[in-house]
Amino acid sequence: MTDILPPGVKVQGASGIAFVIAGPSGAGKSSVISALLARDPRLCFSVSVTTRPPRPDEVHGRDYYFISEEEFDRLLSRGALLEWTVYQGHRYGTPRSEVVDRLKNGLDVVLNVEVNGARAIRQANLGFPVVLIFLVPPSWEELVRRVRGRGTEDEAALSERLRIAKEELKRVPEFDYLVINDELERAVARVEAIIQAERMRIVPCG
């Protein structure tokens, strides 16, 4: 297609794009991302590091790299993290190599990060486009139902998670897109539409 375009013009999808998906607990980020990866071979997932213990259904290297506080400190000292944040007493971070190496190879990277980390990734000057997508449940009541339905935390931890969610929802204006996850298939289709539109965005080059 490039031979038909005038000089100095290309579509954004000609190189890698970083799609950052964030949102409060209960938004369904992991489920949406899993469906996207299963459908689109050009998408790859950036696995984050965390100091929290794994949940029963989580796998090291697939969902997160579960590391010690000391290992996290070493990554920070080497400048190996694009961003990092503290959530409910545990640290989370995005390894730079997980993202940059794949973008350089022309792949699009999907990142599942805390809300505080999304803007930091855009400000990291990757040299590639960064698209911020905020995922939310259809209502506060549904968010509470999903968080409580996990059954993995005591009441104090649940209350803290919901308090954080209220604060995170105030950050919606910092994002490029808002996607409501009222039903998984519809939410996935909405994010797919964003991805395709961003790949076709016209940008200057040269």
Task: For the structure shown, list the relevant keywords.
Rossmann fold, four-stranded mixed beta sheet
Please count the helical segments: 7
Q: What does the main sheet amount to? A: 5 strands, parallel
Q: What strand line-up does the widest sheet have?
A: 3-8-2-9-10
* Range of strand content: 15-25%
Structural class, by secondary structure, is alpha/beta
Could you characterize the architecture of this molecule?
By secondary structure, the chain is of the alpha/beta class. The chain has a domain at 2-46 and 106-204: 3-Layer(aba) Sandwich (Rossmann fold). It has helices spanning 29-39, 69-77, 96-104, 115-122, 140-149, 155-169, 184-199; strands at 9-11, 18-22, 43-46, 48-50, 64-66, 81-87, 90-95, 108-112, 130-136, 177-180, 202-204. The strands form 3 sheets. The protein has a 5-stranded parallel β-sheet, with helices on both faces. The longest helix has 16 residues, at 184-199.
What can be said about this structure in brief?
The protein is α/β, with parallel strands linked by helices and 206 residues long. The protein is built from seven helices and eleven strands.
Produce the secondary structure layout.
Layout: E1 9-11, E2 18-22, H1 29-39, E3 43-46, E4 48-50, E5 64-66, H2 69-77, E6 81-87, E7 90-95, H3 96-104, E8 108-112, H4 115-122, E9 130-136, H5 140-149, H6 155-169, E10 177-180, H7 184-199, E11 202-204
Parallel strand pairs: 2-8, 2-9, 3-8, 4-5, 9-10
Antiparallel strand pairs: 1-11, 4-7, 6-7
Helix pairs in contact: 1-7
